Amino acid sequence: xxxxxxxxxxxxxxxxxxxxxxxxxxxxxxxxxxxxxxxxxxxxxxxxxxxxxxxxxxxxxxxxxxxxxxxxxxxxxxxxxxxxxxxxxxxxxxxxxxxxxxxxxxxxxxxxxxxxxxxxxxxxxxxxxxxxxxxxxxxxxxxxxxxxxxxxxxxxxxxxxxxxxxxxxxxxxxxxxxxxxxxxxxxxxxxxxxxxxxxxxxxxxxxxxxxxxxxxxxxxxxxxxxxxxxxxxxxxxxxxxxxxxxxxxxxxxxxxxxxxxxxxxxxxxxxxxxxxxxxxxxxxxxx
Length: 287
Ligand code: F6P
Description:
By secondary structure, the chain is α/β, with parallel strands linked by helices. The chain is built from eleven helices and twelve strands. Helix 5 links the parallel strand 4 (90-95) and strand 5. Helix 1 packs across helix 11 (253-272), helix 2 crosses helix 4 and helix 6 (133-151) crosses helix 7. 6-O-phosphono-beta-D-fructofuranose (F6P) binds at residues 9-10, 96, 119-121, 164-166, 216, 247.
């Protein structure tokens, strides 16, 4: 039996642990596809050992490397990928909704796949959890909780924290809740300058600084801060993009546990000799 593993889209914490678990279980039977679907098109495939999975098992990132690959969606690109995919009995695909779509296309064309939900955004259809979310939330809270004591050494400050999450607001919502933020902007409707100024002024009257959580991709951080600054006098505004810290920070213990549970499901999927899409519902991993 020959198994191939690939990661596509944004890397997420826990991917490396799944890769290591597969290596431990299948040893020389498992191969790594470098740079996701791009590697499948080009045939950049090596025995998994080459990517040093044991060294990376507790690290963030993804040792086999990922990519975003528009070519996979073209007829010619897909045909090349399919030709290479046919050399394997199973392909394990780690990623988000785009990667799931890719898995389905391969499956439609006779390839046996196992899809693993892995994206910090936690926005995968039909799954209440995806690998990386807990670590990303944790990384945001850690950053904010380590920035604010310094900011709070000064009066009349407003801090805007820009949070990754693509079009999904789950990370921003969770972080806002956990750090007890003063204002959360998770959609266009929340960009209400009157309300925001009101919050800031109320805080100033209580000698309190203001924490605003801004979900990425809603508006340009600089523009928002400039516009807000023009509306509040004698207040110093700052913004911090948490960005890649969310993906690059260490996986939490919870993440490693989920990656281990998912790996068990992958082994079962492969044993069953059918394609499976792993998902999380009602506190359980299923397929
Ligand atoms: O999908 C994961 C994610 O980290 C999103 O939260 C973010 O919008 C995007 O990827 C960033 O993409 P890139 O790695 O291409 O900058």
